[in-house]
Each structure stands twice: as structure tokens, then as C-alpha cells.
Design brief:
This protein is α/β, with parallel strands linked by helices. The chain folds into 2 domains: about 100 residues, 3-Layer(aba) Sandwich (Rossmann fold), CATH 3.40.50.2000; about 90 residues, 3-Layer(aba) Sandwich (Rossmann fold), CATH 3.40.50.2000. The strands form 2 sheets. The protein has a 4-stranded parallel beta sheet. It has a two-stranded parallel sheet with strand order 1-2. The chain is globular. It starts with 20 loop residues before the first helix and ends with a helix.
Length: about 230
């Protein structure tokens, strides 16, 4: 993985605890992969071609079919697809409306994804880091973000940031990421963070090319559907 440092990988990859649940789950799935009929990956060919070539030499059929949202846009006249979201959590209304009232590139978007957890101390420290930045921010705080406890912020923090912050349990993430008011991201250092470390224009054009008619992801999903229909 060229230009990717150990610190760029999720924390459970770097754990020294051999009993870590996430690490052992990953090991288990990796060991099972060679027995699968096919592997479907959340990426596209030109983004990490070298890694995909290495996987293809050791695993069965590998299909890269992302980004699915852009692939769905290639299907005209199907409004049912437009109503299907990719979020695992129920979206809290009001986030997009709040962003609409802000200046372009003025908002820091904070979201640690579906899996990352914090201790209560880490939550408080991070909250005050945001407050002390004096930036406007949209912070997504899942109900289970804090391990073994509720994600509760001090009243002092809420009062301090009420005029420049929006707190939500989840949001319409696809709309948020495209919104013109978003000027920066704080994420959980996972796959999406790795994406963000790449050149911005490259990220914009290459996924679009992959999902257009004749693109790698477009061809892969057609091939996958054809193979499934044969079964």
C-alpha cells in the first residue's frame, strides 16, 4: 500500500492485544476468504490497483463495485433506488438545513463512523478540543460512541458552543459530504480517512470514471449480476 503509514490504519490493526475482538474477527474473515466463491470489495480498481492485483493472485473472483451511490445514479428513471440509503443508523433531521444557513467551506464535519468507540474521558477531551478551536462544526455522536456508557457532554460545553455547533446522532452522510459549507473533516482514521489523504481532484474524478458506462465498477457489477443469474 504505497504512501500508507501504519498510523493511517485503524487502531485495531495496531493493537498488541491478541484477544482483541475486532482483530480476531478480521483474522477469521481473512482465513475464510480463499473458500469463498467471490469477494466483493468496497473500492474501485484505479484507487488501489497494486493491492487488488495481489489479492486477485491469491483469492477467487474479486469484484470491485464502489462507489455504489454513483453507480445508482447511472440507472435512470428508478426512483426506488434513490430512496435507499447506505446508513446503518437512523438519520436525525435538521443537519442539512443547518448547513444551508452557513457560509461555503466554513464547517468542520466530525464523524467517527459506525464502529469506533471512546472512553468518557476521551469524549470530554475531544469535545473541549473542538470548543477551543472556535470553529463551526457538525459533530455526529452515536448513542453507543462511549464504551459502556451514554455519550453525554457537559452542559458547559453545550452552552459554550451552542451558537456554532450542530450535534446529531447521525445524518444523511451522502448529502453532508457533498455540501458546499463543509470545509474540513475529522474522521476515525479508517478507509474513508485514507481516501481523504489522497489528492482531492483525483478522488473526485476517478470514482466517477469507475462508475460510468464502461468503467471498472460498472463492468464489475454487470459481470457479478451475470454470474449470480447463472447459479
Amino acid at each position: 500500500m504505497k504512501n500508507i503509514c501504519l498510523k493511517d490504519l485503524p487502531s485495531f490493526i495496531r493493537t498488541t492485544d491478541e484477544n482483541d475482538i475486532s482483530l480476531n474477527y478480521l483474522i477469521h474473515q481473512t482465513e475464510r476468504a480463499p473458500r469463498a466463491s467471490a469477494i466483493i470489495l468496497n473500492t474501485f480498481d484505479t484507487f488501489e490497483q497494486a493491492a487488488l492485483d495481489a489479492l486477485s493472485s491469491k483469492l477467487p473472483c474479486v469484484y470491485t463495485i464502489e462507489p455504489l451511490l454513483l453507480l445508482a445514479d447511472q440507472i435512470e428513471g428508478d426512483n426506488k433506488l434513490k430512496s435507499i440509503g447506505s446508513n446503518l443508523w437512523k438519520e436525525q433531521p435538521g443537519c442539512v438545513e443547518w448547513l444551508n444557513s452557513k457560509e461555503p467551506h466554513s464547517i468542520l464535519y466530525v464523524n467517527f463512523g459506525n464502529v469506533t468507540i471512546m472512553t468518557p474521558k476521551q469524549l470530554i477531551e475531544f469535545a473541549w478540543g473542538l470548543a477551543n478551536s472556535e470553529k463551526l462544526f457538525l459533530w455526529i455522536i452515536r448513542p453507543d460512541l462511549v464504551v459502556g456508557d451514554l455519550a453525554i457532554l457537559h452542559l458547559e460545553f453545550v452552552t459554550e458552543t451552542k451558537d456554532r455547533a450542530m450535534l446529531a446522532t447521525w445524518c444523511a452522510q451522502e448529502q453532508i459530504l457533498k455540501h458546499q459549507s463543509i470545509g474540513g473533516f475529522v474522521t476515525h482514521n479508517g478507509w474513508n480517512s485514507t481516501l481523504e489523504a489522497k489528492n482531492v481532484m483525483e478522488l473526485k474524478t476517478k470514482p466517477e470514471e469507475a462508475t460510468k458506462h464502461g468503467g471498472s465498477s460498472y463492468k464489475n457489477i454487470k459481470k457479478l449480476i451475470t454470474e449470480i443469474l447463472k447459479v
